Amino acid sequence: MKEMLFDFFGAYTGVLTLEDILLNFLVASVLGIVIYISYRFSHSGPVYSARFNVSLIMLTLTTTLVMNVIGNNIALSLGMVGALSIVRFRTAIKDPRDATYIFWCIAVGICCGVSEYLIAAIGSGIIFFFMLIFGSIKTNSRYLLVIRGKREAEKAVGDLVKRCFNGKAEVKVRNSGKDSLELIYELSVNTLVASENKNGFITNALHELEGVDSVSLVSQSDEISR
């Protein structure tokens, strides 16, 4: 029985020549640079990280290295899965697009490791095209209007905000103390711009109200800079 299992696993062992290994890494390097360029141009905002972009090329080459070792050897592949299952990566992915690039690098590395260059090239071309088109789309920013003052100014503040933004400002937080009050409204960019064009700056109007101590306008976005 042991001999049968050994023969079964050994029958799928593939031996790569030096030329095959170098070619695998060469194609992986070229496609890794393509991924690098795609990430650079699709992340033109503050979310772009040059170090993460370089690590994408390294991830492509590392995956190619692993696949060169595994080849068609089932025993090695099972051992590799067992070894990787104990590794824990705790780096948070701040942008959902980063996860897409990580899987792209792994897929390219796997294809190059088993010498499937055509699949890697065609797949990378298609993904590159769509990432350049849709990768630069950003989350619509919203604004938080933070108003602090005395409790007796709440009605006047609510009426002014409702009038300036045509009822489109939504109260997200209402904190009140014995004599103090904090109101936080959420505004879309279009609502804020339309109000400023029609009524002027909301901060100036709020400061004219009696009982208002401070007014802050904070940009809110799902994207977090590194």
Q: What does this entry look like structurally?
A:
With 226 residues, this protein is of the alpha+beta class. The chain has two domains: 133 residues, no CATH class; 79 residues, Alpha-Beta Plaits (2-Layer Sandwich). The protein has nine helices and four strands. A four-stranded antiparallel β-sheet has the order 2-3-1-4. A hairpin with a 3-residue loop joins β2 and β3. The protein starts with a helix and ends in a 6-residue tail after the last strand.
Mean model confidence by pLDDT: 77
H/E element string?
A: HHHHHHEHEEHHE
CA-atom Rg in angstroms: 28 Å
Question: Can you tell me the overall shape?
Answer: elongated
**Lateral strand order in the biggest sheet:** 2-3-1-4
Question: What can be said about the biggest beta sheet?
Answer: 4 strands, antiparallel
**Overall strand count:** 4
| Percent helix | 55-70%
Query: Which structural class do you get from the secondary structure elements?
Result: alpha+beta
Low-confidence stretches: 8-13
Query: How many domain regions?
Result: 2
- Count of helix runs: 9
Strand percent estimate: 15-25%
In short:
With 226 residues, this protein is of the alpha+beta class. 58% of the residues lie in helices and 15% in strands. A hairpin with a 3-residue loop joins β2 and β3 (180-188).
